[in-house]
Known about the structure:
- The chain is of the alpha/beta class.
- Helix content is about 45%, strand content about 15%.
- It contains 14 helices and 15 strands.
- The two termini are about 45 Å apart.
- Adenosine monophosphate binds near residues 264, 305 and 306.
Amino acid sequence: MIFDKILKYFRGYFLDVRTMENLQFFNTLTRKKEKFVPLEKGKVRMYCCGPTVYLYAHIGNFRTYIFEDVLRRVLESNRFKVTHVMNITDVGHLTSDADTGEDKMEVSARRERKTISEIAEFYTKAFFEDAEKLNILKPTIVCKATDHIAGMIKLIQKLEKKGYTYIINDGVYFDTSRLKDYGKLTGMGFEKLKESLKAGARVEFNPQKKNISDFGLWFFSPKDKKRQMEWVSPWGVGFPGWHIECSVMSMKYLGDTFDMHCSAIDHIPIHHTNEIAQSEAATGKKVVNYWLHGAFLVFGEKAKMAKSKGEIITVPTIIKEGFDLLAYRYLCLTAHYRSELVFTWESLKAAQNALFTLREHMRRLKENLESEKKKTLKAEEYKKKFLEAVNDDLNMPKALTLVWKLVRDEKEVSNREKYELLLEFDKILGLDLVREVTKEKL
Length: 442
Ligand code: AMP
Ligand code: ZN
């Protein structure tokens, strides 16, 4: 009996170790799937770009945070200790990513007739409340841009000393032509990247910039307008550019080189490209080993959901429409994180039906558990296949298919095994499978 238990423990252990060895992710930097090897054994240092807190986050933003949450849960199920850092952007994100327009926070404060700190506090609180309802785990460290201004000034000074910066009428800029491999994350060469930025520029860029790809590190406060938030710096009173906050906070909390950096694909050509430029120019070291980017949530007509476009669906909208919010999480899991997901109310309804049916299965299983706690090879096979799917670049659609196969398997696994496996899988799915469903909702 004892021997049997020991044998089962070791079989389970080796099964886990074998699947852990197959953990792989698609790395934007190399444009291929790569085996995941952390910098430090048993630990993962991960940075995820957080929200700009000038408005409610929309469900497109939350698609990305759900993907990052699943990633973290998968890493933790592989027994890694994850340090997950998320920034809160409360200054410097201009209405155009190409360094023109106004600070989104200042615009929002004016619109709502509030101070910027009131705006930031309100939307940060709303963000974490929504995230919690979506079963998104709270990051290990949450850090605000405005708490790190001194660090940003220091990093800019370092770049200045190394000759990467120049000053023009509206601020201190990074000279992207000084960096050999600028733009490597995009897979385009420097010239092609500049051309694509020119083609995509929806607004005039400052003609004093040496290259269209150069970006602001520190902006001077405008002479004709009083900003609510500005700081004294060696270059004059002003405020930081958007990208510098992520370089400073990621390296402060995770070190000069860390394992992972994530967000959606919109950040590849500008925000993350510029983060790499600043961090690597300052330290001379590779900053991130694995870059993971999720695809967009789009509306039917393929329009990206964006806060700046005004028409957004938020978490409160979904609740108001009478949905269980985790139906949205289920919907996100039905598509691979690197594939575009088209949002429709019908698809949300279908996701909710599937989720409720799963929960009803769980309830019935629980009511019919066998007393015997046996473990069959078939149950182990389900577990192995589930872990293989999630470890293969987070193949959640495949993992969900497996969940349904398990639920429908009437012959080879017992109710108890099914119930226990589903509970274990739910640690990654985050769908609250044990939540009760009222009869009228079924
Ligand atoms: P922001 O608050 O605009 O800085 O965006 C927060 C996060 O949401 C970032 O990781 C973006 O890449 C991501 N994001 C923005 N729009 C979408 C969208 N339509 N679908 C998925 N992710 C998005
Ligand atoms: Zn960022």
